[in-house]
Records
---
Amino acid sequence: MDFIREWWAVIWAAVLTGFNVIQLLLAKTYARREELETVTMAVEQLKNKVAELPDSRENHQLQLEISELRGELHALREQLKPVHNLANLLLEERLNVRR
């Protein structure tokens, strides 16, 4: 008993130091609850965004529609060539009249 009374402060300091070292090692090894909740929320947001993306079937359908639009644009371009030529002739005539 005398030993404990005499060395009480040193024993208590050693116990607290050991406890603090253990806490430090655990803090370096494991994530805090707040950090884990933040990461969990970010993962959930990413899951929601991925769920909104089109699947492979919808993606294929979009590719088909885009290729159809390309064909229609090429056809429209061919139909607009005479209009473009006519507009150029009208512009040229208008410029010649002003001179």
Note: DSSP finds three helices and no strands in the chain.
---
Amino acid sequence: MNHKPIEGFSKLPKQGKIDWLVNEYLEGNQEYQNILKQYWNENADLQKLHEEFSENTISNFYMPYGIAPNFLIDGKLLALPMAVEESSVVAAASKAAKFWIDKGGFKTTIINTEKLGHTHFIFNVEPHKLLHFFNFSLKKKLLESTEEITANMRKRGGGILNISLVDKTAEMPNYYQLKASFDTVDSMGANFINSCLEQFGKTMRQEVATSEDFTQEEKNSLQIVMNILSNFTPDCIVRAEVSCKIEDLKDDSGISPEEFASKFKQAVTIAEIEPYRATTHNKGVMNGVDAVVIATGNDFRATEACAHAYAARDGQYRSLTHCTTDNGVFRFWIDLPISVGVVGGLTNLHPLVKFSLALLGKPSAQELMSILAVSGLAQNFAALRSLVTTGIQKGHMKMHLLNILNQLGATEEEKQHFVTYFKDKTVSHHEVINEFNRMREK
């Protein structure tokens, strides 16, 4: 090994962790200490709050926090908070919002809010015997045993919706599931769901042990493998859409509304049938979704996992968005499975998360689902609009221009020169370097 392992790293104070890292991995270079410390918050209490969000924290990692205004969603005008590091995401979302604001804006529908979790277990028993036990005894006991856990959630209108027994023995010997559905109202509900499921596992073990339905050998074969929620929530889903007459799709791209609608629909259809394109297509959707998910303190990894699983639900990976151009009407929509919360987690702790939720009018979880679907749809619309007209690089590289100039150490005066220089040109890294060198040689 090229470095020594360390015992008790988590028990070291923050400065001790930093000293060890710099000495062990960074040749004692104090510049790295300075980099970490310059991102500490001057407010010691706020810094401590951030450090306690996670483990072994030694600094904060900043992401740009931007605003995409002019989103007309279900008749309400909103400005969306977006935490994202990629150039052109906020600009593209804003441009799409502006395009649709005078065409009725975005409309959304909550299709369902059901979330899922499973107790996965191995049981060497005849399926019909287990099904009888579940229907006539176990299911009732599972619900009774979780009444204390679900009491507060039931008061808010949520709780356990259903529990079913799933036979998976054709795919794995003796493998079954207790599949439970939940309504967690305004919380994302991960802790609630997992607590219920863990109680299911305990209750099942107890009920099997005392049941007269099974032999001792069968009882001994029971293994509760795990109790865990699923981040695949195909029945917690929202639809966001835009529509207008094709003739109203006029813009400054230089192509007719009819040609634009035709090419746009073809682009979506390609993403519906071609996984290579669908992957990039959906990545663009998630640019918009994740930026707002992060800004509102939700779990973007869960959001990503669910969306991509849903995109492949029929065995082939496909577009999350869809388009029709029937009877002279352009319609573009997304059905997005997404599980988010506006209470619990970071929502009552992180100051910027609280700001984001206040900015959005303190939405319910369902309203936030709608906002996220709209953000993804807007981002996808903007990307496809560029792709079928001017091409993606013209706008993207203009946004990326400042990144290139900052890498080169350009002054503010030089940056302004480049903004003017590329006003009617497509930005390329090569051309920026050439013009920068030409300027510096003068």
Note: The CA atoms of residues 301 and 356 lie 19 Å apart.
---
Amino acid sequence: MTLAVTPHTQVDRSAGVTAPAGFRAAGVIAGIKPSGKPDLTVVVNDGPEYAAAGVFTTNKVKAAPVLWSQQVLTAGKLKAVVLNSGGANACTGPEGFQDTHKTAEKLADVLRVGAAEIGVCSTGLIGERLQMDKVLPGIDAAVAVLGSTPQHSLDAATAVMTTDNVAKQAVLIHPDGWSIGGFAKGAGMCAPNMATMLSVITTDAVIDQPHLDHVLRNAVGKTFNRLDVDGGTSTNDTVLLLSSGASGVTVTPETFEAALTTLAADLVKQLQADAEGVTKHVSITVKNAATEAEAVAAAKVVAEDNLCKTAFFASDPNWGRIAMAVGNAPTAFDPQLLDITLNGAPICVAGGKGVDRSEADLSGTEIDVVIDLHAGSASATVLTTDLSHAYVEENSAYSS
């Protein structure tokens, strides 16, 4: 599947982190997961540049790998990232941080670089220490099979999956001779306040670290932060962006931000489509708000409201629930001017009943909600999903 950016540029989901020049990756079975599925990923930047940036969870409870990666990124460069699924290494105390440090040291030793040049990410059950007797040999196994083919990219994206059903990756090849690729994982506990669960993005463009950091934050704010599956901001949320500069093409921050935003938006659409128990893909647009921040806040209240989410699941055009949710948002507007449109049907007009509910057909997978506050000129869109039987069953059947 591709998403048009310009007549000459497309997002392609057949490859990911290894598509940009200068990167190798691998995903292997380390034995961390009892299921025996792939659970350890390594992404290596072979240079010649090593600029890197990251955004992390705003949750006060931060996992050890988040604390580690935040610390090493103060230097603004990474030569490799190691990620594991099957254990979050969150709420594990000083010992958990030591485990993260050992993980970074192990990969650094194998690659003959410094531990302070290694990013670490983990995902899985909170509160349990990692099985280091599986993690450390797993790093050896991953480094032994590093490569830059599309299969290596897919393997890397697969080994970070937890409750995800499919791997999520994408690449954008720019006509000017540089590219950007990445993978993401996340299906539940998704209400990112920086990123989603885990994502690694690579580029062979030449761009300095301060600009890399700036454009990443801007792009995340417009994409990953606009996905809200269930209101849960994870302890481990991380997005890392690595630049090899291997294309030799210097890119303006504006051009790079546009491409990064397009790539990230595609990854977010894949996350939405694979959310836990999803049967509906819901887009909530709030327009004519006083500020963009208020538009986002109103859309998020609707996205997280269980009564709205269950109505979406039932294909029920119950606009009263949406009006109720918007009324609880920290957003200034006149209720007598409120308009709500569901899949093109103006079902609420001027704060009251619009067309008959039967005109709002929500029977398909896609539901488009447009809320007009008539309070300004700002707008924002948040993506969410429905609250289904499957979501409840999946999240009550096991610890996550």
Note: The radius of gyration is 21 Å.
